[in-house]
Amino acid sequence: MFEWLFDPRYYPLILQGLTLTVEITLFGVFLGLLLGTLLAIGDIYGGKLVRGIIAVYVEFFRGSPLFVQLLIAVYTVPAILNLQIDHYLLAFLVFGLNSAGYQKGYMKGSMQTILDDQMAAGTSVGMSKVQTLRHVILPQAYRIVIPSWTNEFCSLTKSTSTLAFIGLLDLTGAGLSIKGATMQILPVWIVIGAIYLVWITGFSKIMDIIYEKKKIPGVELIMQ
Amino acid sequence: MTEYVMEARHVYKTYRIKGTKKEDTKIVEAVKDVSLQIRKGDIKLIFGPSGSGKSTFLRCMAMLDIPDKGEIYLGDQCLTKPGVDLNKARARIGFVFQHIYLFRHLTALGNVELALRKVLKLPKEEARKRALAALEEVKVTECINKYPSQLSGGQAQRVGIARAIVRSPDIILLDEPTSALDPELTGEVIDTLRDLAKEGTTMLIVSHEMPFARDVAEEMIFYDEGHIIETGPPSLFFNAPNTDRAKQFMTRIINRTTRE
Fold first, then answer.
1. A124 and B95 in contact by Cβ < 8 A?
2. Which of A37, A117, A221, B37 is 20 to 30 A from B5, alpha carbon to alpha carbon?
3. What is the DSSP string of B87-112?
4. What is the rounded CA–CA span in Å between residue A162 and residue A159?
């Protein structure tokens, strides 16, 4: 049943799959954070039009399955633009854009708990709004948002398993290949599932440690 | 050259309080045609019933709230004209908040230093030196590396004052600096304000600390329903105010203080 586990021929496959899964998750969460921050700021300070566009953006990426978004990106966008676009690149972008849809909400929520009084304090000492955002609001908001960020990381990691179905070799894709070669269905998925579990649990623990380390007395999420 | 450090000319400000329903929205006329002049070294104290618009007026002076009408002058510069660099102007005004509003992710020292680094663009060592001097002035040297949530209310407000004075502003505006503190902690903040007064700091203070007012204020301003009702030296208010409203208010306040 598990003899294939000791066959070194499969190791590069698993490693390659895991690498893509990890890369795309980390990139997605990172791009999502950058973009999500901008969307949150736009949603707080923007006019009606900006807020409307952001609302449509968020509803699209939260309201439709990530897999459907991937299919659209990979199979229709290049055709419409009449361009050859690397599937990896498109997948990376979809994960970032999708995550931004969620992270906008987390960022806006954590910014709003501190915005009014801290903005008044920042401008009262002569800083501009942008300076206050940068030096006062965001450093606090990022600390508050870390736990939501960990959740986002878990959910995004699991979503990467859809990559196998657009022909990319992620961890699930590696599982599919090994299953095809060994015809061991349950053992393969048990092992693949365990790798996901170890990676997600391990990384979440690291994030928890970062949260505790970065936590500042008085700057934390108030749970209602 | 104007002889005033700061001046308000016929300032108006209304704001809305949104209710749960649309009909519940209230329009509050917090500042109605208020004019005020402050000379260098002046200490003026605004007092009056809560909800009368004193704080809104003070925020208008600092351009933290933009007046609907009227002018605010900082020296010769009119701050209410369009195109004025308000950030530069605010850097010359110190503001102390009722609820303190320290930057929660920075230590006491970091709070005082931030504007020196980011607004005045001072080099690190000089900013540190000035911040430490300001913290020494308000007598919080023992907890400069603590975060705001670890400070007592009195310590926090003194850090708030240090943050306001460290840039050597032309004037300091204080919005009820002691009213959010426990009664036993107001003394240390008042002592700090007395020290500032001794040094000739120009101050406009919203406060109901009557003994403090009597000792340091050159002028007291009774403010109610968006207007200045009566102004005069403390002796006027403590003996015989001209208006009935001021009389009633003083009676109430003095009774309250003696009963405590």
1. yes
2. A117
3. HHHHTTEEEE-TT----TTS-HHHHH
4. 6
Rg (CA), chain A: 21
Contact A218/B90, CB-based, under 8 Å?
Answer: no
Q: Is residue B149 one of the residues assigned to a domain?
A: no
Q: Could you tell me where the beta strands, DSSP code E, fall in chain B?
A: 4-17, 26-39, 43-47, 69-74, 77-78, 93-96, 171-175, 203-206, 219-224, 227-232
Give the number of domains in chain B.
1
| Neighboring chain B residues of A114 at a CB cutoff of 8 Å | 104
| Chain B CB within 8 Å of residue A213 CB | no
Closest chain A residue to B146, measured at CA? A217
Domains of chain A: 3-214 (1.10.3720.10)
CA dist., res. B231 & res. B44, Å (int):
10
Domain assignment present for B64: yes
Instruction: Calculate mean pLDDT across residues B185-204.
Output: 93
- Residue A161 corresponds to which tokens in the numbers above? 């398993």
At A223 the pLDDT is 46
CA distance linking residue B118 with residue A131, whole number of Å: 8
Q: What does the mean pLDDT of chain B come to?
A: 92
Contact call for A126 and B92, based on CB within 8 A: yes
Interface contact A113, partner B, CB < 8 A: no
Q: ipTM strictly over 0.95? A: no
Type of residue at A219: V
Residue of A114, A117, A124 to mutate for B, most B C-beta atoms under 10 A: A124
Interval B97-130: pLDDT, tens? 999 999 999 999 999 999 999 999 999 999 999 9
CB A105 within 8 A of CB A149: no
* Cβ atoms within 10 Å of A222's Cβ, excluding its own: 6
CB contacts, 8 Å: A217 with chain B: 147, 149-150
In 3-state terms, what secondary structure has residue B229?
strand
**Listed residue (B17, B27, B9) closest to B69, CA to CA:** B9
Residue B195 lies in a domain: yes
Q: What is d(CA B27, CA B17) in angstroms, rounded to the nearest whole number?
A: 6
State which residues form the domain around B242: 4-101+170-259
CATH of the domain at B221: 3.40.50.300
One-letter amino acid for residue B214 of the chain: R
Q: Is residue B154 part of a domain?
A: no
The verdict on a CB contact (< 8 Å) between A125 and B114 is: yes
